[in-house]
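The protein record filed below.
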Amino acid sequence: MNQHFDGFNVPITKKHHAMTRLSVVVTFCLFALTWISAAPAEDTVRPGRVLASSLTSRDWPWWRGPQRNGTAATDQQPPLHWSDTENVLWKSPIPGRGHSSPTVVGDRIFTLTAEQEPESQSVLCFHRETGKELWSKEVHRGEFTPAGSKANAKSTFANSTVACDGEYIFVNFLYNGAIYTTALDLEGNQLWQKKITDYILHQGFGSSPAVYKNLVIVSADNKGTGAIVALDKATGNQVWKQQRPKLPNYTSPIILNVAGKEQLFFYGCKLITSLDPLTGEKFWEVEGSTEECVTSTVTNGKLIFTSGGYPKNHLAAVHADGSGKIAWENSTRVYVPSMLLKDGYLYVLLDAGVAMCLKSDTGEEIWKERVGGTFTASPVLVGDNIFAANESGKTFIFKASPKGYQQVAENQLGEEVFATPAICGGRIYLRAASTVAGKRQEALYCLGAKK
C-alpha cells in the first residue's frame, strides 16, 4: 500500500486521506461562515457613501435642504462674518458657469456646471473638508439648445441642484432641446440616463429633482410637452407621469407633509396641484397661481404658500386639504427667491431687494425693509437668523422676528451670487463669481470659524 505523509511524517492511509479531506472541507466552511459574518454587510457604508437612512443634520442633500423648505439644522453655529480673507476655510475654482447650489452629503459636495467652449455639462465633486476636486463627470457634450433658441441673459445651462440619497446622485439638464435626468454613483460613474420630454426654451430651465423613497421625481413645464415624471431610482424606468399644460414654468416638485399626509406640491401654469408622490394620483388641483413661477412652496401644516411673477405678481396662501380655498392673496412680487416660514410668520425677499415679514394665516404685512440689490438666490433660515445673498455677492443676515427688521451682519464675497448657499455642519458652502485676470471665474467657498 502506498503511503503518503503529512507535514509531520505521519503516514496517511486512504481512509485517513478521505477523513482529512472532509476535515479540510469542514474547516473551510467554518472559516467562510466566520468570514462572512465578520465581513461588512452589503449596505455597509463604503468610502464616501452615506445610506439614505443615515442622512444627518450635517448634510444638505437636495434643493432647499433636508426639510425641502430652506430651514437648516439648529444644532450649528455658522459664521456671521466673512470676507475674501476672513473665515474662508477653503476656496475651489469651478470651470464654466452655473447657478446649481451645493449639495453636501457625507464627506462630499456636488454641484453642476456648463462650459461654452466646447459646449459641455458636467457634475463636479469636491471633498468637504479640503475643497479638493475629487472628480468631474461630463454628462452631455454638444449643442445645449437647437439653433435659434435663446435663454434669459441671467440663466445658465446648469441651474438645477443635485439630489443625493447617500448612495446615488441625480441631476437634471436641458440639453439639445430636451430635458434629461441622469443617475450616477458617488464616484461619478453613470448608472442610467432618461429623456423626460422635449423642451421649448423660453427663459431657461431650473427645476431640481426630488428624491422620495424609491423614486426620483422631475418636472419640465414648457410650451410644448410639459410633464412631471417619477422614475425608479435604481433603473430609471418610468413609474408614473402627469402631463402638464403647454405653458412655460420653472418650479421644482416639493414633497411636504401637510393636512395629515405627504403631498407633492407643484404650482404654475395657472394651477396649484397636489399629487400622491408615490403613485402620481392627483389629490387635488385648483386654479389660483399665475402662469410663470420659480419659487418652491413652504407650509405651516395647513396652508401652502405660492408666488409668481408673470404675467402678474402673485403671493397667496392656499388650504392644502383639497377644499380649494384661498386663505389670502396679494400682488407682492416674489418671483425667484423662495420663501421661509417660522413661528406663524412668512419671510420673503422680493427680487427687487426688499425683505418682508407677513402673518402667515392672514397675509397681514408686519414689516418691510429695503436691504438693497437684486435677489435670485433663496434665503436660508438657521435658528433665528436668515441668510440672504443678493446677486452682487452681498449677504444680509437678519433676525426672523416679527419685531421689525433687525440686521445682524452684512458680508461681501465675490462679485456675483446666484446660487442658494448650503448651510450645514456649522459651515456655509457658497458659490460665487469674481473677476480673475480679466475673466469671470466661479468658485465654491467653504466658510467657517478657523480653529
Remarks:
- Helices lie at 14-38.
- Residues 1-47 have pLDDT under 50 and may be disordered.
- The domain at 70-99+339-451 is CATH 2.40.128.630 (Lipocalin).
- The longest strand covers residues 427-436.
